[in-house]
Structures are given as C-alpha cells and as structure tokens.
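SEQUENCE-TO-STRUCTURE ENTRY
===========================
What this section holds: a protein sequence and its matching fold, both as plain text.
Question of interest: how does this chain fold, as expressed in backbone structure tokens?
***
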Amino acid sequence: MSDPISKELAESMGVSNACYDEISAILGHLPSVEDLSTLLAMWDSNGRQQGLFTWLRGIPHAAEFNEYIYDGQREAVENIEEPRIKECYNIAHSLYARQSASGGEIISSNTPFETTGESIFMVGKVSSQFLNSDYARRYLHMASNPIDMGSEEENTNYIRMILESLLDNNILHTCDEIVEGGLFLTLLASGLPNGYGFDILCAREIRLDAFLFGEESGRFVVSLAERDDDFFLMKMDEAQINCCFLGRTTSGRILIDGYDFGNINTFALPLKTQS
C-alpha cells in the first residue's frame, strides 16, 4: 500500500478535510496520492456536476412504493437505508455463501471471463427495483409475491437473440443473464472459473443495493475487447437496446466505485477468514 497523504497536501489537491475523512471511511484507511487521484478522476468523469463531498456520500434514493413489489408494506419501505459500498462487501459474501450452501455452487457462467482489460457492459434497462431478490427478503425484510413477468419475456428473448448473434460472431466474448444474486453475483460467476476480477462503477442515480443485488429479469452482462466497443454500441443503437458501460475485467481484484473487495478467489472462502 502506498504511503498515506496528509490532509494539508490533500487540500492542495482540492480535497477538503471533510472529503478527506469521507474518503478514509470509504477506503478503510488513510488515502494515498494514488487513491485521491483515482477518486478525483472518477468524480470528474461521472460526478454529474455535483460537489465532491456530495458525490462521495452519494445522493439518497427513496425506494419507490410499488404495490406489486412491496405487497402493501408501505411502513417497511419508507425507512429503508441505502448501504454504503463498504457494507456491500459483507452482503456480497453472505449472499454468495447462502447460494453455495443451498445449491452447492453459485449461478454458473455460460461464458466465463478469459482475459484482463476487457470492456464490461450491462445490457437491458438499468433497473432500480429489488423485486423478489434474496437480498430484499433477507436484509430489507420485504415480503414480495411472485411477479408475472410474461409481458417482459418477448423483450428479453429479443435482447438474447441479438446478443447470441454477436457472441456467435466473436464480437462478444462472454454473455450471461443477470439472475439470482443480481449483478454482483453474476459478475462473480463470470470471473471465478478463471480467477478474473472486475473493476466497475455503479450508476449514481440508482440505489447501490438495487443496482448490485436486484434480480429483475431481462438484463445481461457482456464483455468484449475494447477495440470492438464502437461496433458493439452501434449494434445496440441499431437494435434500440439500452446498455451501460460498467468497467473492465482485472487480473483478479474486485473493485466497485474504487473500493477494493479483494481478490475474487477469496469469495470461495468463508467470510471469517478474510482480512
């Protein structure tokens, strides 16, 4: 780990004392010059004209009340607090361990990551819904009824058809539908077989836990060589399919919004053994 930077030097980089303290809380240690440079670059690219401190803390997102999701439990919904990225570390380990215990292994990937530095995209609408996710039931104590997704099936099949064509033509290297465990565990399933990690940024306008652990169907994670990004985006535009850039594959580390979750292989070990 690089040497920590002082508050005075950080202030000369445009980082106030309050921001310095917030960054330290996010990272779990005093930041280095590299830490601050990375976070400042991230803020500059996707801060959406917010102040640095506001961006670091994240804008609170009130969970929308939907009868078919929350089964009339308005009181339980109004006080849902959005977890910080650091808290998502334990949540992710817990969801992984639960799937491993119940099914022997987490969801498997049809096409696992095979190299580093590849672009990762999420294809399909960027959902802010928890739906019937394991996370919503266990952590938010939301009781949800089974949802009729029949109206979405045709759209999902259309997206799948387009992506399978790109996969067959070697434009895409991996393609997996986001299912149980949400985006995070889908990425985990893609990386674990060959030990590749991922470095992604989450959509700031969506609750962090909904983005990472929501299980709405009709969304896919794909990876491809950076040289094919423009062609892929052109095809998505032609097909009128929404997609968003998440980040890139790594040699093993998992980073989400700059927070280091450690090496992907540690997710195969019990949480209590992690440092």
